[in-house]
Amino acid sequence: MPGVAVRPDMTASSLALAGLVAPAQAALLGSQVGQLLVALVAVALIIVVGKFVLKLAWRLVTIGIVVVAAFYVLSTLGLI
What we know:
Blueprint: H1 12-29, H2 32-76
């Protein structure tokens, strides 16, 4: 590939990746519509990951409420 500097630690797969990703990335990010598409995909990924994180957080908060309520009731009754 002309214009590609090859270092001794570069493998064939990294050379192939460098040759394939750069033109596709330049074509995709070269227009405003491509940039908008990349931004929307990034936001979608953040929302999907956030959905799972919030689902876990909601479960942890619910478990915490139950545990603290149980300790409160038990301490009010003088059992703890």
